[in-house]
Automatic annotation (TrEMBL):
Compartment(s): Cell membrane
Record has Cell membrane as a keyword: yes
Organism of origin: Bradyrhizobium hipponense
Membrane topology per record: Multi-pass membrane protein
Protein name, UniProt field: Branched-chain amino acid ABC transporter permease
Pfam (any one): BPD_transp_2
Segments traversing the membrane: 6-27, 34-54, 60-81, 93-112, 143-162, 192-213, 225-253, 260-279
Keywords, in A-Z order: Amino-acid transport, Cell membrane, Membrane, Transmembrane, Transmembrane helix, Transport
GO terms, molecular function: transmembrane transporter activity
UniProt entry tagged with the keyword Transmembrane: yes
GO cellular component: plasma membrane
Family that this chain belongs to: Belongs to the binding-protein-dependent transport system permease family. LivHM subfamily.
GO biological process: amino acid transport
InterPro entries: ABC_transp_permease (IPR001851), BCAA_transport_permease (IPR052157)
Length: 289
């Protein structure tokens, strides 16, 4: 039973990363209609920025400030990408955005791999989150419990921001009827840029949280991005709550599969994606265009 609980914990942790990454993808696709294939590279960049902030002799600001600064830095980088490249794809077929962001991902990964190689760089767990707790039925590492709880809080806060606030209403309106929103004096291009920055900032936050568990590697995003896209498709393209629920749920299902039938653990997500698309092509919570 301890092995089962351990796999469930691993599944919850992976589900936390799936939920944060798919949430960022859902925000970008739902608001901007861009299939952001650079998401995995920006997730990796967030981990590397946190690594530099923690280990640089001149900065060395520690884990907690890096948890805030790294997503902001990567978010600014994402906004520059949107203003210089992605904004020109407005109104074009989704394939153009997919190809452009895929090329950006290859460039970013290639640059980091050229300078740092393919091996992982260690990232220290902060002193406040070291150790673990004996729950009776299993031993819970404090940092892993923190990742699950903090990811859930961030996901719910993002959903609330987009679905329940005036700013979120402006964002949704700007994507559905930008001409009308401009008539009310709202700077639509700026809102779109900020939305893309928010989406990639969530990916960078997942990278920072992942760094002490999975180490910092140039290809760490490439290992996750295909699974995350499957999560987004299952939950429904552009569905915020669907991405959150599906991310955590599929992480748990993947963990259970590793315990009961390890050979299928790498394919169970894609099998579920096929089954969902056969029954409901828009995803579990998605809407038809």
């Amino acid at each position: 039973m301890q092995a089962l609980y351990a796999q469930l914990l691993v599944g919850l942790i992976n589900g936390s990363f799936y939920a944060l990454l798919s949430l960022g993808l859902a925000v970008i696709f739902g608001m901007l209609n861009i299939i952001n294939f650079a998401h995995g590279a920006l997730y990796m960049m967030g981990a590397f920025v946190a690594y530099f902030l923690l280990n640089n002799d001149y900065l060395s600001i520690g884990y907690w400030p890096a948890l805030i600064v790294a997503p902001i830095v990567v978010g600014i980088f994402g906004m520059i990408l949107e203003r210089t490249m992605l904004q020109w794809l407005t109104g074009l077929d989704h394939l153009y955005g997919l190809l452009l962001t895929f090329g950006i991902a290859l460039i970013v990964q290639g640059v980091f791999q050229n300078y740092f190689g393919s091996s992982g760089l260690p990232y220290a767990i902060p002193d406040q989150l070291k150790g673990g707790m004996n729950l009776g039925f299993m031993f819970l590492p404090v940092y892993r419990g923190w990742v699950v709880v903090f990811s859930l809080i961030v996901c719910i806060a993002t959903w609330f921001l987009i679905e329940k606030t005036r700013l979120g209403a402006y964002l949704r309106a700007a994507t559905e009827n930008p001409t009308l929103v401009r008539a009310f004096g709202i700077n639509v291009p700026r809102m779109i840029t900020l939305t893309y920055g928010l989406g990639v900032g969530l990916a960078a936050l997942a990278g920072v949280l992942s760094a002490p568990i999975n180490q910092v590697r140039p290809l760490m995003g490439a290992d996750l991005i295909i699974v995350v896209f499957a999560v987004v498709v299952i939950g429904g393209m552009g569905s915020i709550m669907g991405s959150i629920i599906t991310g955590f749920a599929l992480g748990v299902i993947e963990g259970l599969t590793k315990y009961f039938y390890p050979e299928a653990s790498n394919t169970v997500v894609f099998v579920l994606m096929v089954l969902v698309l056969l029954v409901k092509p828009t995803g579990l919570t998605g809407r038809a265009a």
